[in-house]
Amino acid sequence: MKNFIFILFSILIFTSCTKEDNSPFDINGMFTYNIPNCDNGGNPEIHCTLFINFVNDSNVSPISITGGDIVYETSYVINKSIIKFNKSSKFNFNVSFEIINNKTLKRIEDNTLWVKEE
């Protein structure tokens, strides 16, 4: 009986000391991806760092998703841990991300990891 009480007490202490981070994910900010072994050959129209700036809970602007010098803007939705960008006449790309943690997104189309800037 003493062992049972000791085990129960130990479990109670352990679970009360465990901290869970239930803070909401703050998507706002800039996420970047550096293209490995990128060589733009000195061409300023080719970028080796792609970026997405989440400006609020439904819009991103600017977006550099192709590595070229054209930037885009669009809206997005979050469903559980998946972010899906909406297509439009000005943004006709399949772009979606899985939220890995508060600082990392994984692009679903190519498994690249995008990191939130500090």
TrEMBL record:
PROSITE patterns: PROKAR_LIPOPROTEIN. It comes from the Bacteria. This is Lipoprotein. It comes from Jejuia spongiicola. The lineage of its organism: Bacteria, Pseudomonadati, Bacteroidota, Flavobacteriia, Flavobacteriales.
